[in-house]
Specification:
The protein is mainly α. The protein is 57% helix and 2% strand. It is built from 16 helices and three strands. Strands 1-2-3 form a three-stranded antiparallel β-sheet. β2 and β3 form a beta hairpin. It is globular and about 75 Å long. The structure holds carboxymethyl coenzyme *A. Carboxymethyl coenzyme *A (CMC) binds at residues 6, 177, 208-210, 212, 243-250, 295, 298-300. InterPro entries: Citrate_synth-like_lrg_a-sub, Citrate_synth-like_sm_a-sub, Citrate_synthase, Citrate_synthase_AS, Citrate_synthase_bac-typ, Citrate_synthase_sf. Belongs to the citrate synthase family. The active site is at 249, 300.
């Protein structure tokens, strides 16, 4: 039977949320290049309503989200225990997402509350792992400012907020990527929001998806530490049949539109934060990958350096990706629930046939 492995190129359903048609990324029809200048709350509203908010709606939406960035005491009590475990932060987040759906009265939690709680929980995981006290949300700050404030313990400046806001917007959604599709599969059974998100976080963890950003930084660190020529590093990895992390994409064969903007942000941050050497290595590696294999960097390539420049440890990079993507996951879960059709494909059976079970006499 002829079928596309990994569902490559298969359109499995319709969506009004985002599109990669023509290798241009748009959210509800708006090009990502223009939206990266918007506010995060505006973009979340757009993903959830497929239209931009007016001034009053935006004000109310922002205030509502910020007011909900509070975790129940029971969740904090359990988080203080879970987040200290010596597990990978994405494993902690997977458990935490599930936990958010089991503590207190969560039956009626709606997307604004769920998004707000996810962001605060991620900030709390970071603080607990760093042995730092938790920071309470500041009602005078917007969502992105609050997130940065809660992870860093100090109010962020305008420039940093603007950059991080663009990074969050660029990663907020990406039509039927692996984690979003996973969320939609679970949503198609009418399971609750937290179950869908727990599944999405699990899918994002893998190195072929969100887990790539952590591996990108490991690679850059190794090149820098060992003072290897990026070209030699690439050749050595390929000889070992390993992929070069942060390159290639199922859809974008001529470049990921997000990576172009992220490279600009990384190029601005790297010299300011004393990380010029990493940027140089990344740019040399990208040049070689393109010349030698025609492969372009994807979204995970420059976000790795951006997160490092923000002072984050590489082990939490994928969790930051989850911070950005939760809004998109929620948009898709809502759409799936509205337009639902159970996702249940077929498979081609290639195992043995004509087997017969004979009960052994001793078992009778
Ligand atoms: N390094 C080396 N070779 C590569 C790479 C890479 N990063 N990406 C693709 N190729 C080669 C691949 O070996 C294959 O060659 P051949 O046809 O000779 O076997 C060809 O390019 C096509 O690649 P593919 O793996 O069949 O393409 P795909 O659409 O199934 O995979 C991908 C896309 C993202 C899984 C793959 O490019 C990859 O593994 N990249 C590295 C991991 C990574 O950066 N993941 C992040 C993905 S984008 C953002 C996200 O989802 O988080």
């Amino acid at each position: 039977m002829d079928y596309p492995r990994g569902l490559a190129g298969v359109v499995v359903d319709q969506t009004k949320i985002s599109s990669t048609a023509g290798a241009h990324l748009t959210y509800a029809g708006y090009p990502i290049e223009e939206l990266s200048e918007a506010s995060f709350e505006e973009v979340v509203f757009l993903l959830w309503n497929t239209r931009l908010p007016n001034e009053q709606e935006l004000y109310d939406f922002r205030a509502d989200l910020v007011s909900k960035m509070v975790l129940p005491a029971e969740t904090i009590r359990l988080l203080l225990y879970i987040a200290k475990e010596p597990q990978h932060p994405m494993s902690i987040l997977r458990t935490t997402t599930s936990l958010l759906g089991t503590t207190n009265d969560v039956e009626h939690d709606e997307p604004p509350k769920i998004l707000a709680k996810m962001l605060t929980a991620i900030a709390a995981i970071l603080r607990i792992r760093d042995n730092e006290p938790l920071i309470a949300v500041d009602p005078n700050l917007n969502v992105v400012e609050n997130f940065l404030y809660m992870i860093k313990g100090k109010r962020p400046d305008r420039k940093l907020t603007k950059m991080f806001s663009s990074v969050m917007i660029l990663q907020a959604d990406h039509e039927f990527n692996a984690s979003t599709f996973t969320a939609r599969v679970v949503a198609s059974t009418f399971a609750d929001y937290y179950s869908c998100l727990t599944a999405a976080v699990s899918a994002l963890k893998g190195p072929l998806h969100g887990g790539a950003n952590e591996r990108v930084f490991e690679m850059i660190e190794e090149i820098e530490k060992e003072q290897i020529d990026p070209k030699d590093f690439v050749e050595l990895q390929l000889k070992k049949k390993r992929k070069i992390m942060g390159f290639g994409h199922r859809i974008y064969k001529n470049g990921d539109p997000r990576a172009f903007i992220l490279e600009e942000i990384a190029a601005e941050l790297a010299p300011e934060t004393g990380n010029k050497q990493y940027l140089k290595i990344q740019q040399a590696l990208a040049k070689y990958m393109l010349e030698r294999f025609g492969l372009h960097p994807n979204v995970d390539y420059y976000t790795a350096l951006i997160y490092h420049c923000l002072g984050l440890d590489k082990s939490v990079f994928t969790m930051i990706f989850a911070t950005c993507r939760t809004a998109g996951w929620l948009a898709h879960i809502m759409e799936q629930r509205r337009e639902n059709c159970l996702i249940r494909p077929n498979s081609e059976y290639v195992g043995p046939t004509n087997q017969h079970y004979l009960r052994k006499e001793s078992e009778e």
